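Lest this sound abstract, we let one protein speak, letters for residues, whole numbers for local backbone shapes, and leave readers to judge:
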Amino acid sequence: MGPPSQIVSSLLTLITQAAQTLEAGYDGSIPSLDDTQSHPLDGKLSTPDMQEAVQVLEGACAQLCATLARPNHTLLNKFYLTVRPRPIHLFRNYPLHHRLSSPTVLNAALKFKIPDILQDKPLGMHITEIAKICGTEPSKLARILRLLSAKHCFREVEKDVFANNRLSVQLLTSNPLHSLGLHMTFDSTGGATKLAETLADPEWGPSFVPVHSAWNKFTGQPLAMFDYWASTLELQQQGEGFGIGMIGWGTTIEAATVVHAYPWEALGPGATVCDLGGGVGAMAMELARAHPNLKLKLQDLPDRMVQAETVVWPAECPEAIKGNRIEFKAVDFFAESPIAGCDVYYLKNVLHAFPTAECLTILKGIRKVMKPGSRVLIRTFSLSSFEWSLNLPVKTNIPYRLLPPAVLNLQDRQLKPAPAPLLSNYGEGRIRQYRLDVNLMVLVNGRERTLDEYIELGEQAGLRFLKVWEFGDLSGVELCVAEGS
């Protein structure tokens, strides 16, 4: 196919030529996405040239993105978070091609561990050999792998011979993305089939109770998903898999950005950071490696703490344990406060799993044990990120030692909208936050929030808004103790 640089140039040429063909086909009357009336060409048969141009345009755009974006980014956006809810009024006669989605098909490849099977076969393996190892029918498995190959995950090197590629090697069982994929392609995808039914339920539809989720309808379980995983020893393995998967999630969304973008060194030697609800501590491990001056506290439910202290950290970050720089302490943040007197209480992707009352319980629990100068740093997606210009940080009388002048310019980047004519929130370019928002609704009846909503939560808990940070995909909402609270 030629060198990668030539492939990129060729794809760009194809995109330009296809767009020009389609533009010419509209004969100067190109429709706007804002139009609500049909265009004269909408109901007419496309010319052969326009049909091919659309196919080239879609194929080239998808291949260009898959080529240039990080492979884990593509897997998360195009395979893991693309659930397709089933309309409530269609069941038996619902077309098969509409029921299928990338997560559904990828789940089979993950369950059969096909990337591992192909790992030592760079030239590919015939489908009969792959199917023999998997214990399944060859022609059906070939059809699954052919669909995935058309979406640039695996490659069909010749008829019925498949090999790994840049995307599929991310799905080896040794990669946390494999564990994340098993969760996202089953729990999320299965739950989504009950989303419309859940929304139409007169009791569950208007409810934000965690046990009134589409996942609960799908599984028939009366417990919330995380409680269900903790209910038996066998199911605890799913919880452990989710914990490992969150490492893959953090790597994919480049969660480590916060390690360098936030001025941790300004906290001073021996400063304490509590990673609350941090699972097995993926973020805390990054902090431990980058900032050995920090004292870290990792807090989550007992099972995750046992997993972190006995399995994950001894293998991944033993130097922090030897240096006594990490403390593992189980917590139920609905019943008790976290470790007292920490300089920063860090919450990544925690509050979005809970309704407002539970979020306030968590934040008030933190507020009780904060010392003067302590911060709460909520790491999350903000659905109003393109409206941050309306929410500039308020002035404070508290010395804000964490903000050297050099980082104040971060605000400028946050206020900058997407270049025209893109949607101001980047549309598909930042679709992940909106897909995750719906996934949370499916799994635990949770939701992403706007910046204003996080500020309001903080105020109700006795915390005051200081600053919104840009940390790659995620934003950081920083709060301090409100005077007089």
Q: What stands out?
A: DSSP finds 21 helices and ten strands in the chain. The mean pLDDT is 87. The CA atoms of residues 312 and 453 lie 35 Å apart.
